[in-house]
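ok so i was messing around last nite and threw this chain in just to see what happens. nothing serious, just curious
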Amino acid sequence: MPAPLLYTYRRCPYAMRARMALLQAGVAYQPHEVSLRDKPPAMLALSPKGTVPVLVLPNGVVLEQSLDIMRWAFEQSGDTDHGWARAQTSPNLALQQACDGPFKHHLDRYKYPQRFADAMTREHHFQQAVAVLLEPLEQELHSQPQLGGASPCASDIGIFPFVRQFAAVDPERFEGLPLPAVKAWLAAWLGSGLFTEAMRKSAL
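result:
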C-alpha cells in the first residue's frame, strides 16, 4: 500500500506539527512541498481551503486539519497512549486550545502588525501572548520536562512550532522573559532529531 501523500510547507507551524507527529508515530508519508504562490491544482481540488497541511490517505480520505492528521498518525502507531491520549487530559487540552485560539491571534498581530487593522498595540499582543499560553506553559513544565511527563505527548508537538515562531520574532526579548522551563523545553525541541528530520527540505 502506498504511503499517504502530505501537502506541506516547511515553515508553516501547522504543517510542521503534522510532519513531526507522523515521524514520531513512525508513519511513512510522501511529502509534497507546496509553493504558497502557486498552489497545486490537485491539492485545491482535494481541499479548496487552500492551506496546508493536507494529508491524502491511500483509501482517498482527505484530512485537512493538522490536529486531525496528528490524531490519525498516533492512532496508526498501535499504542493507544502513543502521545495522543495524554494530550486529551487537563491541562494539556486547555493549553492546546489556548495555543490554537488566543495565542495564535496575538502571535499573528505581534509578528505581522502591518497586516492587521488593530486598535491594540504590538506590545499589547506580546503581553497577551505571554499571559494566555507561555505563563501557563511555564507552570506545567516547571515540574516535568514535557507536557506528556517524562516523555512527549501530542500537546508538546502541537504547541512547540508556535512557541518557536513567537520566540523567533525577537529572540533577545524572548530570552529576557522569566520563563526558564519554557526556554529549556523549546531549546530541547529545537535540538531534537525529530525536529531536524521534520525540517528536511523536500522537492516542490
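not much to say yet. The chain has two domains: 5-82, 85-190.
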